[in-house]
């Protein structure tokens, strides 16, 4: 009887341990799924943000190249403009192959449009700069600045879109983490309830009958009490 009782108690506690192990495994699996999916999306967002930084840097260099050209340093200015053009084209191609946010392709299309307007104006200015007076050069440069800021705004809008995407993914990660914890919480609560019920049944159906049996024996054999 005692062996049977021990076996039942042991089996009950093993079931309790099994419930907790299952809860832990389920939570680990869910956390792993959340971590992998969020990491992939956030990596893409950070990649897009990095490309917008490259675009801004190239845009700034092209503007500087135009200024150098107008000031008479044509060789260095032309080289800077061409290098910046290649850099921004490369960054745009990478961004086009790394779309993660809704309507991101429209933002990139807007960048292409605004940048082409700026770059076309830059090339036209360098091609005709020999016939321009200093005053005309200053006026044209100021006109180019409007196109420059328009292109810069388009790039910043794409950067902001991806920064907001990172923020949303961070919030999503928090929510998914909470959901990943639910199986563990439910299982732990169930295990606690099970432990309380187990304690009640052991006390009610095993301990008390044994105590009554002992008390009965003592009443028949008071000298052994």
Explain briefly what this protein structure is:
The chain has 225 residues and is mainly α.
Secondary-structure map with pairings?
Elements: H1 2-70, H2 74-96, H3 104-128, H4 134-220
Helix pairs in contact: 1-2, 1-3, 1-4, 2-3, 3-4
Order of helices and strands: HHHH
List low-confidence stretches.
Answer: none
Query: What's the total number of strands?
Result: 0
Q: Which class of secondary structure composition applies to the elements? A: mainly alpha
Helix coverage percent? over 70%
Give the mean pLDDT. 80
What profile does the largest beta sheet have?
none
Q: What spatial form do the alpha-carbon principal axes imply?
A: rod-shaped
Strand content: under 5%
Domains (count)? 1
**First-residue to last-residue Cα separation:** 23 Å
Number of helices: 4
Rg of Cα set: 37 Å
What would your notes on this structure say?
With 225 residues, the protein is mainly α. Helices cover 91% and strands 0% of the residues. The protein has one domain (2-224). It is built from four helices and no strands. Helix 1 (2-70) packs antiparallel against helix 2 and helix 1 (2-70) runs antiparallel to helix 4 (134-220). The longest helix is centred in the C-terminal third of the chain and has 87 residues, at 134-220. It is rod-shaped and about 130 Å long. It starts with a helix and ends in a 5-residue tail after the last helix. The mean pLDDT is 80.
């Amino acid at each position: 009887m005692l062996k049977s009782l021990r076996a039942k108690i042991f089996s009950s506690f093993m079931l309790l341990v099994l419930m907790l192990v299952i809860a832990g495994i389920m939570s680990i699996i869910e956390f792993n799924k959340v971590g992998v999916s969020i990491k992939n999306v956030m990596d893409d967002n950070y990649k897009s943000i990095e490309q917008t930084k490259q675009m801004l840097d190239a845009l700034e260099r092209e503007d500087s190249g135009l200024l150098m050209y107008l000031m008479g340093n044509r060789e260095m200015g032309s080289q800077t403009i061409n290098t910046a053009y290649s850099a921004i084209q490369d960054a745009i191609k990478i961004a086009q192959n790394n779309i993660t946010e809704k309507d991101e392709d429209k933002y990139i299309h807007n960048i292409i449009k605004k940048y082409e307007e700026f770059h076309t104006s830059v090339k036209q200015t360098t091609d005709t700069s020999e016939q321009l007076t200093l005053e005309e050069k200053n006026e044209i440069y100021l006109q180019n600045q409007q196109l420059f800021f328009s292109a810069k705004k388009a790039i910043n809008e794409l950067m902001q879109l991806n920064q907001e995407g990172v923020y949303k993914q961070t919030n999503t990660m928090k929510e998914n983490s909470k959901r990943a914890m639910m199986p563990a919480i439910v299982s732990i609560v169930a295990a606690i309830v099970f432990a309380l019920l187990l304690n009640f049944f052991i006390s009610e159906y095993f301990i008390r009958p044994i105590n009554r049996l002992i008390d009965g024996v003592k009443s028949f054999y008071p000298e052994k009490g």
